[in-house]
């Protein structure tokens, strides 16, 4: 315990890999885990649960005022109606950006994140630089993502300190009037649903 | 007397951690062992040996928290939780094999159960709970003192005055749940603070910050 060799990052990673293999062996031998269940978990988060789910929610909210209304009243139910439910998304709240207010989500205490709609959180979301600074200097953080908001647009930071999970609904980009929901979803980036990005604008 | 409780994960407002490194949204994992680490943590979590708040407590009290990657934090906490329960032993972790008989578990996650278990999650909203003391618009002050156990009131929001913005109903109270003392559901609120209340003269203009706070954390201001 306690051995730490920051200059040997590669061997550190190898050590972690050995540790994971050892754990997997021990837990399998003891009958605590079923290896096929591990494969199913990984497959789920590799292929079925990711930010394209959230993009479909946002695109539908942009295209369908009745759906947007439902999403703002009861996000858990409106999102579940598209088939996205479960772990780390049990209690959802949608945060619509407006010309006046830009929403930004963080978990300063750990890594709370809406998995059913956004998948596994990116490394920066779980890391100290973002978690420490975004509640104090959100404009500085946004600048590191290449985002500058209009002066006068307030920033509202949501620290997910309990089991409520937040999905930002970015402003629909101009020039998207004729697009289908599928085309709209392609404009919605993961970061735009956390608040650290803005949606793409369509190719002219 | 029990050892003092120290959380190393309460990072809001701290300085000196350097720049943020944005990454492409198609990146899922950063090392070959990470998918297995994720799956081990979720599969052992599904055995019902501990709850999510106990997991968070195990992670945030790791002394090397800030030097570990997030999946390394998960792994170290998983080992700690299993060692505490005698589910694995130090000599087994060193040997990489079972050396002691297994202990009984409430359940084992089977492959065919994975979709339904992940899709169900673990909702924390409860029908029963004491009536809400506060309503939207109420001015409240957060608890100022530190507590010697897991809590979800961040340090930067201790002893601050904010406004109730939303009432979420009665939720399992993390502080109590993490200590294995039951669910103690109580009303959860979104409380909004002006940046100047949190950061004084350093506050950025045009910024408000909210936390989700259980009723125990709050008093009328």
Largest two-chain interface: A-B, 85 and 95 residues
For the residues shown, what is the average pLDDT of chain B? 96
Q: Given the structure, what is the number of helices of chain A?
A: 11
The assigned structural class of chain A equals alpha/beta
What name is given to the CATH topology of the largest domain in chain A?
Answer: Nitrile Hydratase, Chain A
Number of domains of chain B: 2
Strand content of chain B: 15-25%
Rg of chain A, nearest Å: 20 Å
Sheet having the most strands of chain B:
6 strands, antiparallel
Determine the CATH superfamily of the largest domain in chain A.
Answer: Nitrile hydratase alpha /Thiocyanate hydrolase gamma
Sequence of strands across the biggest β-sheet of chain A: 1-4
Shape of chain A: globular
Which CATH architecture of the largest domain in chain A would you pick? Alpha-Beta Complex
Integer-rounded radius of gyration of chain B: 20 Å
Just name the CATH architecture of the largest domain in chain B: Roll
Multimeric status of the protein = heterodimer
